[in-house]
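thread: overnight batch results

M.L. [08:02]
morning all. the overnight job finished for the chain we discussed friday. pasting input first so we're all looking at the same thing
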Amino acid sequence: MNLGLPPARTRPRLLLIDDDPGALRELVAILQGDFDVQHALDGRSGLHRAQALRPDLILLDVVMPGTDGHAVCRLLKADASTRDIPVIFLTSVQAVEERLQGFALGAVDYVGKPFAATEVRARVFVHLRLSGRVAASDPALTPAEGAEPATSVQVHAAMRYIAEHLAVLPTVSQIAQSVGTHEVRLLALFRQQLGLTVSGYIAEERVRTGCRLLVETQMSVQEIANEVGYSSPGNFISAFKERMGVTPKAWRESDHSGHATLPSESRGLG
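M.L. [08:03]
and the structure it wrote out:
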């Protein structure tokens, strides 16, 4: 007998709220293989969609005109129907003060711009499980063909640790110890779940961070090189050009609007 109820979801539902259509396209391309992805282009409509859809997780841009991400998060947490939905903020700002403000409002995590597909999926998978909104064995969390599998909590924690210590990075053994495992195990997890060695991931993270600093700050190339852990600006320039196809100076002079992606991470909707 049909009771007029909507069909049961076969995949976790995500709501993306960002006023930048380009950023939304990137996120949809990254996530649509594994999730039912919905989106909104401003804070107010995002809030209304969250109340109507009751998604399993929300990815929410911080800086938006009108009702910004902090206001939306505050309203979500004040509503009994949405207060338990995990919120991950999207931001190109790395200031500790902003992150602390977001956590105080009830956000569970941050995803930085420019986006890294593996990191976005890792954080989403982890918080869906940690929130108990989906079980670890839920078939809805089986990645689509060709997508990276769910990243473990240890890899997720290691990724954050690396991002926070790029300037003076500890050894792989020390990174492993910081997340409660040993070097051989961490190396195997990175290869299995990210398709990268730890050193390969660090190299990509250094270039990603360099991209962001070039666009968002007035730091010199030498200062950025030091900030992301290169011993000389020449080494940074060589690594950057090899990965991005242009020099840091050319990248800075281009219009990336604060959310450029690495070539391997950039995807369109067709």
